[in-house]
Amino acid sequence: MIGIIGGTGVAPVLKRGKEVVINTRYGKARVLIDREDDVVLLFRHGLNHSIPPHRINYRANIYALKMIGVERILAINSVGSLKEHIKPGTFFLPQDFMEFTKSRVSTYYDGEDGKVVHIDLSEPYCPEVLGILREILDRRGYSYSEGVYICTEGPRFETKAEIRFYKTLGDVVGMTGYPEVVLAKELGLCYVSLCTVTNYAAGISKDRLT
């Protein structure tokens, strides 16, 4: 089963779907399930797009997908470009990430079960699905780049000074890619992100961020 995580804009992906509330030990998650096509759709910001990035219950979301049998996750993320050659209107495939969040619970291994676990994140994104995405994008002639995803706390946009710093470390900046990728890895799920580049980050161009 495939899980798709995105905003309300990805709703048309499902031709049909049953809304289900999944109760997990970390809280509730609301999903749309299409059993016929074996697809689950989860809106990370809620059905009304009312949950800001720093308040999303990432642990409940990923755990709920695991509970209902999802094995592969395609996350749709909006990002700002840190590099002039990564243009708005194109796609971006993260190969690695760096995070600068502050208040997010980012692990299932928090010591409650008496265990200390260190997972390997040398390859955070699923090579299998990354390869499939590359083939699809190439076949359809879509422009895309690959590189390092920088995750910030949000919900505010970054300052120009912050962007100058992030530009030395990564290629795009967003607010929702972490800790999804880590939580999925901890649960043994194949996770990949397909980012849509919506704008240049602050100071990269003269356009005002909206």
UniProtKB/TrEMBL annotation:
Pfam families xrefs: PNP_UDP_1
Gene Ontology terms, MF aspect: S-methyl-5-thioadenosine phosphorylase activity
GO cellular component: cytosol
Keywords annotated in UniProt: Glycosyltransferase, Transferase
InterPro entries on file: MTAP, Nucleoside_phosphorylase_d, Nucleoside_phosphorylase_sf, Purine_phosphorylase-2_CS
Gene3D superfamilies found in the cross-reference section: Nucleoside phosphorylase domain (3.40.50.1580)
Record-level GO BP terms: L-methionine salvage from methylthioadenosine; nucleoside metabolic process
Domain Nucleoside phosphorylase as annotated: residue spans: 2-207
TM stretches of this protein: none
Record EC number: 2.4.2.28
Top-level taxonomic group: Archaea
Cross-referenced HAMAP family: MTAP
Family, similarity comment: Belongs to the PNP/MTAP phosphorylase family.
The name this protein goes by in its record: S-methyl-5'-thioadenosine phosphorylase
